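Key result, reporting period 2: structure in, sequence out.
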């Protein structure tokens, strides 16, 4: 791998004197380095391959980190990390104790705003630009947003606000879904050269200032915009100009010469501007160009052949696949069932419904708020929508879940995929706040399937339920290996848990698959130490099966340990604590779950171990409880004597 130029780049300052040919070579080396690293250490490859020239151009033209580049999502920011002193660290991208897969303020002064969720860049960039204006600073601010993220409601709110003022901000649209029409390419190039020419813009500014703000100016501006529109674009520039932006482009965002020339001209034009760039997702790597969906995040692969290294172990037992198959089966049983997803069809398994019953499948784009309210409207119209949103993304629709679904007691089934610790995507993507967030909302049910068959039955139960938001949360990855496909549906009693292990002294109340880890720990404790704790699978965090707590008290247990892959504050632990306080029970209560801090990236097993959510962590908690019991028994004996 030839990285002769890249090896000399430790910060953006090192590329300032590069020629166009050197910049072109640098882009090629960055791509090669990115492919090599991601082949062994998987990440979001396709988007970053497509954005290399834009990022190199931005760091070449702008004085970063004084000038600010705000990324949207962060999928496209790998070249940015490599250029800004993190070339070697990139080898541990998304690894535990390594660098984050997204931009992160705590990681680098060049990461001016964290980006794990979409559509935030324009609002954040406007805030930074307004702050610079208030400080009388000459720093520049650029937002780089993909066309997918541009569909999010927050992006439109930012555009509306930014265009309404005169704040100096450049928004670059990284559009990788539309190709430039070669038939009118010369016209585009001519008009681009005209509209970015400094002399043209200086003259234009002088003319407008002399004309003033009267009716004549407005009429003339309307005529100019109309004339320009008739000559230029089917690409939507009128929309942005109607919002108050000056629109430039589209340009070839994978041509470094063009990118540098245009950015150099736009840098000194004032006010809110839009630069529309056309890029190719996966650019420079044939497998990624040919299958852009797969290569968004391809996993491990051979960098030479492009052959993906895919594990087939238990693949049929991934929760997302189970959800997808069961949804199709239920949709065939119940004609009112529909599927809704905010651009996560393949990730959540709903692509199966799209293939089998396309008229009852709705992908609304990256619009979580709309997905929930749209689902509420479907429910109000007599349908039974299964709205599948990744747990952490559901946070963006919190108001809609309360106001549009629960307040109206509409029967929307919210399936929260990727609940708990998701792994390498890190803090922005862990689904650890959903239980605490939604447990306090009236007319909401929260179900936590322990395995594949429980997920199937909870979906069936939700399909047959009347009213109330039915929230089913389940983790990323594989299930427990429980047979589910050939077993009949069984409707579950809402709010009822079950005992998995009969024991004594200590009771473990677990949510989701962690009841299996608790059972493993309890059985090990029984074999090794002669004491086997009770283990309960709570199944529903809301309504909570309080009869289980009553039974634990009646059985004379000294301690309850709750286990959950969510925030301890307000989660299952909080629910049990509230009930114990309400009943004035005298029993020790401890919780294993997500502590009051953000958990970083790492493998799921590493992070579960960090939080005590594996077999050993639960076993250690049991042993600590046993030691307290021994001290308690010893004190009782001393008092008797």
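The corresponding designed sequence is given below.
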């Amino acid at each position: 791998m030839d990285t002769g130029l890249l090896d000399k780049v430790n910060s953006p300052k090192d590329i300032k004197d590069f020629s166009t040919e050197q910049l072109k070579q640098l882009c090629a080396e960055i791509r090669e380095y990115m492919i090599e690293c991601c082949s062994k250490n998987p990440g979001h490859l396709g988007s970053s391959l497509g954005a290399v020239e834009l990022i190199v151009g931005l760091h070449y033209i702008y004085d970063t980190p004084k000038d600010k580049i705000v990324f949207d999502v962060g999928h496209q920011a790998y070249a940015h990390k490599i250029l800004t002193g993190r070339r070697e660290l990139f080898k541990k991208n998304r690894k535990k104790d390594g660098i984050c897969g997204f931009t992160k303020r705590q990681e680098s002064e060049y990461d001016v705003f964290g980006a794990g969720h979409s559509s935030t860049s324009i609002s954040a960039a406007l805030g930074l630009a307004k702050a610079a204006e208030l400080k009388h600073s000459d720093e520049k601010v650029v937002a780089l947003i993909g066309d997918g993220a541009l569909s999010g409601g927050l992006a439109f709110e930012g555009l509306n606000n930014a265009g309404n003022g005169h704040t100096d901000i450049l928004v670059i649209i990284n559009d990788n879904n539309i190709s430039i029409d070669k038939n009118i390419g010369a016209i585009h190039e001519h008009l681009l050269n005209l509209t970015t020419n400094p002399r043209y813009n200086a003259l234009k500014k002088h003319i407008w200032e002399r004309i003033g703000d009267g009716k004549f100016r407005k009429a003339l501006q309307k005529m100019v915009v109309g004339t320009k529109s008739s000559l230029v674009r089917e690409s939507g520039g009128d929309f942005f100009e109607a919002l108050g932006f000056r629109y430039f482009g589209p340009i070839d965002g994978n041509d470094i010469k063009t990118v540098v020339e245009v950015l150099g001209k736009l840098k000194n034009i004032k006010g809110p501007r839009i630069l529309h760039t056309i890029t190719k997702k996966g650019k420079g790597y044939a497998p990624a160009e040919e299958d852009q969906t797969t290569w968004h995040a391809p996993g491990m692969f051979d960098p030479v052949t492009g052959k993906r290294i895919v594990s087939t172990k238990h693949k049929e037992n991934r929760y997302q696949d189970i959800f997808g198959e069961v949804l199709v089966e239920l949709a065939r049983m119940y004609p009112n069932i529909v599927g809704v997803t905010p651009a996560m069809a393949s990730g959540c398994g709903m692509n199966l419904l799209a293939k089998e019953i396309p008229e009852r499948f709705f992908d609304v784009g990256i619009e979580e708020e709309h997905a929930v309210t749209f689902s509420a409207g479907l429910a109000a119209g007599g349908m039974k929508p299964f709205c599948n949103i990744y747990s952490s993304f559901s946070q963006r629709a919190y108001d809609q879940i309360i106001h549009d679904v629960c307040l109206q007691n509409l029967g929307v089934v919210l399936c929260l995929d990727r609940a708990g610790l998701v792994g390498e995507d890190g803090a922005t993507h862990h689904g650890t706040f959903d239980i605490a967030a939604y447990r306090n909302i009236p007319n909401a049910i929260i179900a936590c399937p322990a395995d594949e068959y429980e997920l199937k039955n909870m979906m069936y139960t939700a399909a047959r339920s009347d009213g109330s938001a039915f929230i089913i949360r389940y983790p990323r990855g594989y299930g427990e290996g429980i047979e589910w496909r050939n077993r009949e549906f069984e409707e579950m009693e809402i709010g009822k848990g079950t005992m998995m292990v009969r024991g004594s002294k200590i009771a473990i109340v677990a949510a989701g698959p962690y009841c299996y880890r608790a059972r493993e720990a309890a059985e090990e404790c029984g074999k090794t130490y002669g004491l086997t704790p009770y283990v309960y699978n709570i199944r529903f965090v809301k309504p909570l099966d309080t009869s289980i707590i009553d039974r634990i008290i009646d059985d004379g247990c000294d301690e309850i340990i709750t286990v959950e892959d969510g925030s301890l504050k307000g989660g299952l632990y909080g629910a049990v604590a509230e009930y114990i306080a309400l009943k004035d029970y005298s029993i020790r209560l401890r919780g294993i779950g997500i502590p009051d801090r953000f958990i970083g990236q790492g493998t799921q097993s590493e992070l579960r171990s960090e939080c005590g959510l594996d077999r050993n962590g639960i076993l250690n908690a049991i042993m600590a409880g046993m030691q307290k019991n021994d001290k308690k028994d010893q004190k009782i004996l001393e008092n008797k004597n």
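The longest helix spans residues 615-640. DSSP finds 25 helices and 17 strands in the chain. This case is discussed further under Risks and Mitigation.
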